[in-house]
Amino acid sequence: MTTGETAQAVESDADAIERWFVQRGVPQAIFHYNAAEDVLTRMVPYLTAVFLLGALAGFGDKFTGWGQFGVALAAFVILTGLAVGINRFRGRRNFELPDNVGWIEIGLFLLGAPFVAVLFGDLPWQPVWLLLLNLVMLGVGYVTTTYGAVPMLRWGVREVGVQVRGVVNVLSRLLPLLLLFATFLFLNAEMWQVAHGLTWQLYVIVIAMVLLPAVLFLALRSPDEIANLHSFSSWAEIDEICHATDAPLWKRANPPKEKPQIVPLDQGERRNLALLMLVAQLVQTVLVALGIGLFFVAFGLFTVREETLLQWTEISVANFDPLARFTVFGAEVVVTPELFAVSGFIAAISALQFAVSLNSDDMYRQQFYASLEREISEVLAVRARYLYPMVREAMTVDTT
Hints:
By secondary structure, the protein is mostly helical. It is built from 15 helices and 2 strands. The chain has helices spanning 3-23, 35-42, 44-56, 65-90, 103-120, 126-146, 149-162, 164-186, 189-197, 200-227, 235-243, 267-303, 306-313, 337-360, 362-399, and strands at residues 324-328, 331-335. The protein has a two-stranded antiparallel sheet. A hairpin with a 2-residue loop joins strand 1 (324-328) and strand 2 (331-335). The protein is flat and about 75 Å long.
């Protein structure tokens, strides 16, 4: 194999490893991870979808019928023409997806829909609203893509399957006391009165106030665990871990016999790994909370009858408007917003209690972190082997 072919093979293997990092939810482990080439380029399908939907929202009720269709077609033609113009300016083919997203492409995304609103909209504030919405969507997409939130979430769901036994052990000790306390709250008139009096905005704020301590409690424990994992005794240990993973194998120079010089984790990589650990615990907490919430929805259908609900919430019969009404075993059952609101309260409180138990139960911590540490050690070992050519090249330069 010639030198050029070897370099090409190494580059191809590096690309495969980088895709493996993304699938594992740790894209920050990619060497020289940057916004233009790694983050924004992977966001192109998302940005395109938001861009086109924003263009459709750029005109309101000013046009009707075929006129509205004509305006939509004109908006599509204008935006497509602008995109083609940028591609030609960048030296790309007319409809080629960008391989490097810069300020020009971002500017088109942000200003495309507001420009359509200026031309065809019927409300003076519409362009400003669309610009702010695009900024929010760009920020959400950027953070989500930067830290690989979607593959990270998939990994967290898979991790739940591995940790089923540990979760069941925790719940077997926690659930009796939790259900006793939660049932007392559920069958309390004041709880239903509070739920009835809240608007949906205030309800979201209250639920967030209960869940935020749970998230913070879990997040504060993650960095301490990562600090103990970023060390290996030998390259043989690293290679053994790498070969046990599903990471693509690559042909590279054999590492030296001495103790490996591991590239220190930067802040982005530390945050990414901390998020990975946090997501694994959050997925478990959310699933437990959803299970408890659904249990109390079913429990409330049979225990909180219409007469009881009217008495607790002081709603008049004339103003009582349930979401659904049906008969079960000859008894009338009503489904109300208050039922879902109170069950949501109980679920949020249960999530907080479960999050505390995750880090205070020694048996669960031993089982959970043993599996999680193995997963993170695999990522760090593959990262060390992936970065070894860069380290070797840097050492050669320093020697010369």
